[in-house]
Amino acid sequence: MNRCTDYISHYRLDAEHFDYFSNPDPTDLAYERLFREFIVGLAGKKSRVLDIGSGSGWTSMIPHEQLFHVDLSLRNLASLRSDSSAQALADASYLPFKDESLDLVIASEILEHLNTPETASREIWRVLKPGGKAIVSTPYKERLRYTLCIHCNQVTPLNAHLHSFNKEMLMSMFPSANRSVYLFGSKILANLRVASLFKRIPLQIWRAIDYPLLKLIDKAQHVVLVVEK
């Protein structure tokens, strides 16, 4: 059976029928809150911020003067309008921004979806100002799985994940940068599925537990790369 290759068209079609950003699971929601707070903390305060693959627009939590949302779905972008934001229907591999025009680029859970993540990483580097920062996250050492697509009846990667990254692979996307890499979300903690605990625990306490577990057992949910130009 043939494999699906037109993932951009598939994403656009799926986005019109499914809401990927409405998660009713209380444990997943609580975990996402901790992960997003971690990225916000790494970001700091920036003037001009680009969010690639904006989805639900959670990056508005980052202190900013202007926030640019880039996504492949008009439906998603239409829900993200605010006084401090602008929207662009665009592909991560062809960003509609001038060279060295942005202070911060967020690409959270994006590269694993792209046919050529190297092209997107070059675009991120191109639009980033000297002294600017990019934060890139992906699932960590993910085991890729496949299913039969309901649209084209072809073998398609589950969740449209085309690549699996470890620390070294993610760092190789930005060979000229100053880089720091972090693991986040011990699968041991995640498998506890204790929503009430995850909802109440501060990020600092979470990391005090999470980081030693990850040092002991190399099983994380996410790898996060901070790139400085």
Describe what this molecule looks like in 3D.
The protein is of the alpha/beta class and 229 residues long. The protein has a single domain (7-27, 45-185, 222-228), classed as Vaccinia Virus protein VP39 (Rossmann fold). It is built from eight helices and nine strands. It has helices at 7-17, 26-43, 74-78, 117-127, 167-171, 187-190, 195-200, 203-216, and strands at residues 48-52, 66-71, 85-89, 102-108, 128-139, 146-148, 155-157, 178-186, 220-228. The protein is globular and about 45 Å long.
Order of helix and strand elements from N to C terminus: HHEEHEEHEEEHEHHHE
Number of domains: 1
Query: Can you list the strand order of the major beta sheet?
Result: 3-2-1-4-5-9-8
Which strand-content bin applies to the residues?
A: 25-35%
**Tally of separate helices:** 8
E-strand count: 9
For the record, the CATH architecture stands as 3-Layer(aba) Sandwich
- Separation of the first and last Cα atoms: 44 Å
CATH class: Alpha Beta
Using only CA atoms, what is the Rg?
A: 17 Å
